[in-house]
Structure formats: structure tokens, C-alpha cells
Design goal:
Strand content: under 5%
Number of strands: 0
Number of domains: 1
Distance between the termini: 7 Å
Helix content: over 70%
Shape: globular
Radius of gyration: 22 Å
Number of helices: 19
Largest sheet: none
């Protein structure tokens, strides 16, 4: 288990470092196309996430659950089967997107002259499906070196595509349609050229698993698809709902703030990258005491990392929006900060969804996410009909708080892993610190902001690193 903490820390650091450039790539894309086009692009990306949820067949969850206990040949064969199995739904959805791009575009609220972006969303989704399978596979095998190379490669592809299309901008690319088409093509082609090399020497996998294992992988993964789609509605409902209430320019400003806030999810990836595979192994061995320790320790590390991140973002949210998207997106700053808090809370409490994986009751994830989606859509629709889009992040935060309380209560009925007694107080402290810094530091000079940011970063980073070091030693007594 000591090796687990070392591997977890290495992957977590790589996730944070390699994700930072993506904040600026999405900003440069938004700045290049403007608020109105970015509002339409946000709806296309919402469709792309939907396609990933359907075409992925839940096989990334299957790999996370079954690969840790497999030998190298079986694991590689399972990955190969996952790749082959996802080709058919990707092709089918791509065909439907071409044939029915206009009705889909109308349903999403996309501008008519951008309907051809709908099929491109499926092409972009093919790369995202591959990302999900490789991420689950490398983490399940605890191949830290390859996982880090994979994360670096994924970031390199994004930076390369944005740099070539939106910074260098070849003269034959004119207009937002051609720019976005070239961007999608660049991302997919680069992944096709780079990713196979990361898998060289990973146990072969030329032979597909036997029929029993294939059925096992599919039967575990397929029930996850409705759950994934329900969570898709949760994560994209703000854009989908408000596309029918506000202008695309207003939606673009909101979507930019939401897009940047979505990168908060990588704090969770940094702390929890190997949590599910390790917890699955311990639970299968009957060592629930160690599972409880892993959960509580991960949450304790995350809440401090989240607190430090929120403090820094409260100091720099307005400047970050201007530096990345430009002054046209300045209104996204408060939206960004509120959604960052909501995302952090979801990451903090989201590990309780792992309990349903451990006890193999993934059907509960579906029903809980459906309730979550319903709550979110109703809250956003009320705001859209009665107020303006500035209230949307508050609706998202309210629905997030309600859902996480309910999911936690249900999870405890299947595996008793209560949160630490001090966790609620720490969440409240993060909220209060964020409000104070956001409200009372607007007139601070940049020198003062930098000084406070450095101080906050040192304090929180020192605590997190010490906590991880202590965890690596303490867990031995549980295993």
C-alpha cells in the first residue's frame, strides 16, 4: 500500500501540471471565435459528451473494476476488446449525426449555419472515448510511467491543435467553421499517431478475451451508460436549458466560465487517481477498515487542496478570465468562482459513488443521477423563466448540495464509511474564505495578490505533502 500512495502522488502531480495549460487553450479558442460562436460551440461540446457516454458502453468502468485483478495478457486483451466494442456505436452515431444534423442542432439550440459542427462532435468524441479507456486501463494496472506519458501526450495534443489552428492560423482557414473543423481534425489525427506508441510492450493483447470475460465486461459496463447519460444531463443541463432562454452571446460568456470551472475536476483526479482500483482490491479481500482509511484520508487531502485552490481563484478569478478569454468574457468571473466551489464539493463527496462500484450496485448510480438531473433541470428552468443567467450557478450549487447529501446517506446503507467529524467545518471554512477574499480583495494591487497567493500556496501545499507522507506510513497498520 505504500507503493499505492507514491504512485497516487506521482500521477496526481502529473495531472495538475499537465492540465494547467488547458485553461489557456480553451481561453484562446474562446477569444478567437468570440462570445456568440463560443456559445454555439459549448452546445456542440455538450452533444460530444453525450456521444462519449453512449459510445463508451461503460467499458472504462469495467476496466477499472476488473483489470486490477488480471494478468498482463488478460488486461491487454480486455483493453483491445473495449476499443473494438466502441467502434460500432461511434460509427452509428456518426452516421445519425450526419443525416439528422439539422434536427439535433435545433434541439440543442445551435445556430443554423453551424449545424455541420454536429457530426464533428462525434469525431471529437472518438478521441475522448479513447482517452477514457486508456486512462482507466493505465490506472487499473498502476503503470505510473505510462499514465504520466499519456497525460502529457493528451495535453500536448490539445496545445498543438489550438496553437496550429488559432495562433498560427494557416491562410486557408477562414471563418469560425473552418477553424473549428481544423481543430477537431488536428486533435483526432494527433491522438491516432501518438497513442499507439504508449501501448507498446503492454502485454500484447492481440487475442480478445474469451466470451465469458467479454460478457462480464459488457454486463458490468452497459448498466453504467444510463447513469453516465444522467450525469451528462447534470453537467450540461445549464447550457442546454439556458440556450432556450438567453442569447448565444450571453450563453457564450456563461459557458466560458463553466468550461474553466470544469477543470476543477482535475483536483479530484490529482488526489483520487488510483483510489477506486485500490479500494476494489481491498474490498474484495474483505479489508473494509483499509477502505475506510483510504476514503477518509483522500477526502482530508482533497479538502485542503481545494481550500488552497479556492483561495487563489478568489484572488485572481477576474484576472484569469481576462487573461484567457479577453474582456468580452469578463462577466464570467463570478460564474466561474461559484461553479468552481460546486465542482469542488462534488469531487469531495463524489467518492461515495465508488461504494456502489465496490458492492456491485451500479444500478443505484443510475437512479441517483436521474434524481440529480431532474433536480438540476427544474432549478435551472425556474431560474431561466424568472431571472437572468447570473443566478444559474447558484441553482447549480444548490442542486449539488442537495444531491451529495442524499447520495452520502444512501451509500452509508451499503458500506459504513462516515465522513470525518471535522469535514463539515472544513467545507464551511473553504466557503467563508472564498467569500471574504472575493469580496474584499478586488482593489488589491497585483503585488499584494502575488504575495498572498504564494503564502497560501506554501501553507496548503506543505500540509498536503506532509499528509500524503504520513498516509503512506499509517496505512501499513490497516493492511
Amino acid at each position: 500500500m505504500t507503493r499505492f500512495f507514491h504512485y497516487n502522488a506521482a500521477i496526481g502531480l502529473a495531472e495538475i501540471v499537465c492540465r494547467l495549460p488547458l485553461v489557456f487553450t480553451v481561453g484562446y479558442l474562446a477569444r478567437s471565435v468570440g462570445t456568440e460562436i463560443f456559445g454555439n460551440w459549448a452546445l456542440v461540446l455538450a452533444f460530444q459528451v453525450f456521444v462519449v457516454g453512449v459510445a463508451g458502453l461503460g467499458l472504462s468502468s469495467s476496466l477499472s473494476r476488473f483489470v486490477p485483478a488480471s494478468n498482463s495478457q488478460e488486461a491487454a486483451g480486455s483493453l483491445r476488446f473495449a476499443f473494438v466494442a466502441t467502434l460500432a456505436p461511434l460509427f452509428a452515431l456518426g452516421t445519425l449525426a450526419v443525416l439528422f444534423r439539422a434536427p439535433i442542432g435545433q434541439l440543442l439550440g445551435v445556430k443554423a449555419d453551424l449545424y455541420w459542427l454536429i457530426p464533428l462532435a462525434v469525431l471529437l468524441a472518438s478521441g475522448s472515448v479513447t482517452d477514457g479507456l486508456l486512462d482507466a486501463y493505465f490506472k487499473a494496472r498502476m503503470t505510473v510511467g505510462r499514465q504520466i506519458i499519456f497525460v502529457i501526450s493528451r495535453t500536448f495534443v490539445e496545445v498543438l491543435a489550438v496553437g496550429w489552428v488559432f495562433v498560427l492560423t494557416p491562410p486557408f482557414l477562414k471563418g469560425p467553421m473552418s477553424l473549428l473543423t481544423a481543430y477537431v481534425a488536428s486533435v483526432v489525427i494527433a491522438k491516432m499517431l501518438i497513442y499507439p506508441w504508449i501501448l507498446v510492450g503492454m502485454g500484447g493483447g492481440r487475442i480478445l478475451p474469451d466470451q465469458i470475460r467479454r460478457r462480464e465486461l459488457l454486463f458490468y459496463g452497459l448498466p453504467m451508460v444510463p447513469s453516465v447519460l444522467a450525469f451528462w444531463l447534470v453537467s450540461q443541463s445549464d447550457r442546454l436549458v439556458f440556450s432556450h432562454f438567453v442569447s448565444k452571446s450571453e450563453l457564450g460568456v456563461y459557458a466560458f466560465g463553466a468550461s474553466l470551472a470544469a477543470y476543477m475536476v482535475f483536483l479530484g483526479y490529482a488526489v483520487y487517481p488510483l483510489l477506486l482500483p485500490a479500494a476494489s482490491k481491498l474490498h474484495d479481500e474483505g479489508n473494509n477498515a483499509a477502505v475506510s482509511f483510504l476514503f477518509k484520508d483522500a477526502q482530508n487531502v482533497f479538502v485542503h487542496l481545494w481550500g488552497g485552490a479556492m483561495a487563489c481563484l478568489a484572488l485572481w478569478s477576474h484576472q484569469l478570465i481576462i487573461w484567457t478569454g479577453g474582456h468580452a468574457f469578463a462577466g464570467a468571473a463570478p460564474i466561474f468562482l461559484i461553479l468552481c466551489f460546486a465542482s469542488g464539493l462534488e469531487q469531495l463527496m463524489g467518492i461515495y459513488q465508488y461504494i456502489f462500484h465496490l458492492v456491485k450496485r451500479t444500478d443505484l448510480i443510475l437512479w441517483l443521477n436521474l434524481a440529480y438531473a431532474g433536480t438540476m433541470v427544474v432549478a435551472l428552468a425556474i431560474v431561466g423563466a424568472t431571472s437572468d443567467i447570473s443566478w444559474a450557478p447558484w441553482a447549480v450549487l444548490s442542486a449539488t448540495i442537495i444531491f451529495n447529501f442524499v447520495r452520502y446517506a444512501v451509500a452509508l446503507k451499503y458500506l459504513s464509511i462516515p465522513v470525518a467529524q471535522t469535514l463539515s467545518a472544513k467545507i464551511a471554512a473553504v466557503a467563508i474564505l472564498t467569500v471574504i477574499l472575493a469580496r474584499y480583495t478586488a482593489d488589491w494591487s497585483e503585488i499584494l495578490r502575488v504575495g498572498v497567493t504564494i503564502l497560501v500556496t506554501i501553507c496548503f501545499a506543505t500540509y498536503v505533502l506532509k499528509r500524503k507522507a504520513n498516509s503512506a506510513t499509517s496505512v501499513v497498520s490497516w493492511t
